[in-house]
Write a structure and sequence with these properties.
- By secondary structure, the chain is mainly alpha-helical.
- The chain is about 35% helix and about 5% strand.
- The protein has a two-stranded antiparallel sheet.
- A hairpin with a 2-residue loop joins β1 and β2.
- α1 crosses α2.
- This is Aspartyl/glutamyl-tRNA(Asn/Gln) amidotransferase subunit C.
- It is an enzyme of class 6 (ligase).
Amino acid sequence: MSIDKETARRVAKLARIAVPDDRLDALAGEFNAILGFVEQLQEVDVAGVEPMVSVTPMRLKRRDDVVTDGGQPQKILANAPDAREGFFAVPKVVE
């Protein structure tokens, strides 16, 4: 498959990308290069290869879903411009 100037214009329009007319030939060339790489990948024999999610076999680290105060409320509130009774104090914005 080969991408011409009109196809590049249509793809740019569908992607909502403003491409000047003088850049359409270059864009078509880039699309053709990408398609060439895809064709090369299709030539690879993958028979007997199991699909994988990652290149390294690993499980995601998990932790218990427990609600805490973070264990350091005084350090957190130390950065607040105004803190009262263990909470951030903000100006009243609704009358």
